[in-house]
Prior knowledge:
The protein has 600 residues and is α/β, with parallel strands linked by helices. It has helices spanning 6-16, 22-26, 51-61, 66-70, 73-78, 84-101, 109-123, 138-160, 211-224, 241-244, 250-258, 280-283, 288-302, 310-315, 326-333, 337-344, 346-355, 366-391, 396-419, 427-440, 444-447, 450-467, 469-473, 475-482, 494-504, 507-515, 518-524, 531-542, 548-559, 561-564, 570-581, 588-592; strands at 28-29, 37-39, 45-46, 165-171, 181-189, 195-204, 232-237, 267-269. Among the domains are: 14-78, no CATH class; 280-467, no CATH class.
Amino acid sequence: xxxxxxxxxxxxxxxxxxxxxxxxxxxxxxxxxxxxxxxxxxxxxxxxxxxxxxxxxxxxxxxxxxxxxxxxxxxxxxxxxxxxxxxxxxxxxxxxxxxxxxxxxxxxxxxxxxxxxxxxxxxxxxxxxxxxxxxxxxxxxxxxxxxxxxxxxxxxxxxxxxxxxxxxxxxxxxxxxxxxxxxxxxxxxxxxxxxxxxxxxxxxxxxxxxxxxxxxxxxxxxxxxxxxxxxxxxxxxxxxxxxxxxxxxxxxxxxxxxxxxxxxxxxxxxxxxxxxxxxxxxxxxxxxxxxxxxxxxxxxxxxxxxxxxxxxxxxxxxxxxxxxxxxxxxxxxxxxxxxxxxxxxxxxxxxxxxxxxxxxxxxxxxxxxxxxxxxxxxxxxxxxxxxxxxxxxxxxxxxxxxxxxxxxxxxxxxxxxxxxxxxxxxxxxxxxxxxxxxxxxxxxxxxxxxxxxxxxxxxxxxxxxxxxxxxxxxxxxxxxxxxxxxxxxxxxxxxxxxxxxxxxxxxxxxxxxxxxxxxxxxxxxxxxxxxxxxxxxxxxxxxxxxxxxxxxxxxxxxxxxxxxxxxxxxxxxxxxxxxxxxxxxxxxxxxxxxxxxxxx
Length: 600
């Protein structure tokens, strides 16, 4: 009978024992009970004590575990458990962040304290003493929010060292309920082609009114983050005059500063941010939006209790029953959904306005009603495109530009349909035309004027062509990035033909391309073997493909405007928006133990 030597049993036993070096290597410790290992990152108990199991948990559960070593977080984790006072302070930071995310302001901390006190007294009376260390005063909470903001900004600056390329998005239309501000967002890509979108800065336009002052504020923010203009490859803006004005807009100034012989000329496009607002002022013939805004103000002031208007009112209210104020009403209406709702309630609105003595001449004006219906339909088309791009997460700008091109083709089709008086894609206009035809027995030619709306669609086509023309300039690069194996060699620049030939004849890379996402494929592509193609990938991946982060800010603004309309310092406002939009997690233990600043 064969027997296992005793020394092998000892080796197996040693293999299963907890080793001290695992603490630094895998961020685990041996729990006081002595069973298993305790993960310092997620505080979960790993029952097995084999190194294989510990490493598998570390790599599978914490996708970006290398941040803990590169950013010094491991030092915090292995220092040992927090003291009771430090735990209370960490809870205070967490509550401050939660209050910021929910727009509750600094004045509700005492209410939160009373809730915690009641809960602990009734459920966990033995832990009620922990509240003695918890300070939730307004000034303390405000300072903690600022420190969270500084910690997030420090993380961004630390990661900026690894950015291979980045783009900026400049939004001066989000602050519809505030004094005028400019939001500066950044989209970056690192060596592993990981895309990150963050708020870089907030610029007060009342203090930086001129283009030169705005430019100086943006350059200061870039310099503070350690970013060079030579790494900027794209610039996305709204289409306001101060952004895109010829020879006098901010875009022309920035492109002059960012020109480098070693990079692309900065690619600019102005349709992704607030896409549904694109040319909406040109589309709004007969000042439909202005008239409807006046109706809504009357409904809000006199018709709140009417059940037929509850859906409309709820659309324009925050969760705390605060009405969307007048300064943002026009922008809110231009987002199509409410416009469609107003159209569906037009008969109820007419009856209500008549009952309160408001003139209702517009409801009998055939031309105005047709203009209203046409605006509803065309804004719906823009909204569908905007929603489609917003839902696309990390699809890269090549796919987003394909959607824009398809929409431009659709506009051509709409133009032809109007000429043929085919209202298939204009349901609201068709409804109005049918009503007038039924009640007045008039033909389509008398009821609405196709030429009037064809002009509007032609204007929209020109605007799309103008706002996205820079993407047309790099269309070949976008196609190469999206379909490297089907890209025709004769269309490729001479500098990339050798690399592209080698890529397309590599069966292993072709198999990876089919199995992986586009980002994963380019992340694994050797930069030594394919430096030009990899460089194109960095640039394309850094371009904004949707308005997701800007929309996040706009939603935060409108949802919590009741709190944000209070007088706030610019640094507090910036902190709130950074916390609301960031993808990063604050370094809580650094904040508690005062590594970046003195705690309150």
